[in-house]
Amino acid sequence: MPHLGVDAWGSYDEHGNVAPKNTEDEQRASNERAQVAEVFGLTGGELMDVAWVPTYERNITNTLTATGEVVFTYWHQGVPDYLEGPEWHPTDAIFRTVCEDEMFGYVPQIVTGDEGTWRVVARYRNSGETECPGRSAEPGSANAIPATAETCPLCDADLMAGESHGYIYIGDGWAEIVYRLEEIQRATPTVAGCWVDGHWGQYAIAHMVEKAQDWGYADAEVIDIATRHLATIGPSEAPQITDDEHQALSDASDEVEAWLNEHVAPEGFSFGWWEGEFFLNSDAQWAEAYGE
Ligand SMILES: [Zn+2]
To answer: How far apart are CA 225 and CA 247, in angstroms?
Structure first.
């Protein structure tokens, strides 16, 4: 299987991180990320930091297909906020939304990741344009563009020349494309054992949520709290989560465990906490642990 480091959708390293080549590229990538977030109204931290890199089948000739990888740099869990109908918020379906420039081709209709097979179920075109928040930002507010910037990183206004902020424009072909997980991949007994070991301490539940997310768990609110809690580990300036959020995370533990048992645990195995650690154990191992 060809492992493509670069394809039509971008370049990335072996961890799926989009890999800028130098600081100028880094700056451009970070500006584009900020622009995409503004244009799609995803400025609340919804966009995932790490690219989603599933595989897809492509036709080389009529009889020959190959597996390629697609790099979704901008994506988030769940569906866009404006989709409010019950069909978009069922308890038994998992969605991911990618923001892509489809000017030169549609994203693959079907892609496959560790979680299973995903299929495009909806596509919403975007104007690719929005007002720069610099236009209405109070000086010094979170939205304010750094006073030292010579040009606005969002709308390109020449601030040195006294130009005022205008509109952000990322191009004509952008869309939000919603994928739905067709079938969640169950774990196999080979991954049984300790999933969250004791050294995670106060971050154990957040790490459990992170692991569950790898297998398709998609409660955006819980994932958001867990992600922000994990971001405070070590030398970090990320703000601590609130007491209410600690409580919400702790309350979510049972729900996440139940979800993993329903969707991921192989036959004859189940997930559970044991002395501060989280395990996937066989029924026999649990019986032994509980001295039955
Ligand atoms: Zn601007």
So the answer is: 10
CA distance 287 to 222: 30
* Ligand 1: centre distance to CA 155 (Å): 4
| Ligand 1 centre distance from Cα of residue 138 (Å) | 13
For 191-246, write each residue's pLDDT tens digit: 999 999 999 999 999 999 999 988 878 788 898 899 999 999 988 888 999 999 99
How close is the Cα of 121 to the center of ligand 1, in Å? Answer: 34
- Considering Cα of 273, then 275, then 277, then 281, what sign does the dihedral take? negative
Distance 198 CA to ligand 1 centre (A): 47
Question: How high is the pLDDT of residue 20?
Answer: 53
pTM of the model: 0.62
Instruction: Please tell me the distance from the alpha carbon of residue 83 to that of residue 71, in angstroms, as a whole number.
Output: 25
Question: What whole-number distance in Å separates Cα of residue 125 and Cα of residue 127?
Answer: 7
User: Positive or negative CA dihedral for 123, 224, 71, 55?
Assistant: negative
How many angstroms does the Cα of residue 219 sit away from the middle of ligand 1? 33
Q: Are 75 and 99 within 8 A, CB to CB?
A: yes
CA atoms within 13 A on the CB side of 278: 24
Q: How far is the CA of 24 from the centre of ligand 1 (A)?
A: 19
Query: Residue 175 C-alpha to ligand 1 middle, in angstroms?
Result: 22
pLDDT digits (tens, 9 = 90+) for 128-161: 999 999 888 766 665 556 667 788 999 999 988 9
The token pair at 167 is: 């509109």
Q: Which two tokens stand for residue 11?
A: 């370049």
The H or E element containing residue 210 is: helix 204-214
Is the four-CA dihedral 3, 4, 5, 11 of positive or negative sign?
Answer: negative
Distance CA 282, CA 266 (A): 9
